[in-house]
Specification:
The chain is an all-alpha fold and about 130 residues long. The chain is built from three helices and no strands.
Length: about 130
């Protein structure tokens, strides 16, 4: 009877050991999968930043200007001598200053201006 009881206990201990080992193997397997996924995420993030950099480089004004000048050789960038400056009449200057002053007086500043019930844009005819 004691031998039979011994085999029962040893069988139970063996089964519990196998279950424990199986769980530990699953834990290690999940850890290895997580490391693989972290490496893949890092690689994809690096690829994304590289592609974003290339897109921004292709959209840059310098690249577009260089491409435009290489395609059409008769075009060139403006020099300082080729810039035309126009003088505005004094009446236009005075009107623009008056408009700026009126805008500053009407619009309340601060957070409460967001809650104001008045319309922000008003159309008025210009008298000439």
């Amino acid at each position: 009877m004691k031998l039979f009881r011994f085999f029962q206990i040893m069988t139970r201990i063996t089964l519990l050991s196998l279950v424990y080992i199986n769980l530990q193997m699953q834990i290690f397997d999940l850890a290895y999968e997580a490391k693989k996924k972290e490496r893949e995420i890092q690689r994809i993030t690096d690829d994304n930043s590289t592609i974003t950099y290339h897109i921004l480089t292709l959209k840059s004004a310098n690249h577009l200007g260089g491409k435009l000048l290489s395609d059409r050789t008769d075009m060139q960038f403006l020099d300082k001598d080729q810039i035309v400056r126009l003088e505005t009449p004094p009446s236009v200057k005075d009107q623009s200053k008056a408009i700026v002053l009126k805008k500053d007086e009407k619009n309340p500043s601060g957070i409460l201006s967001f809650f104001s019930l008045k319309s922000q844009a008003e159309a008025k005819p210009i008298k000439r």
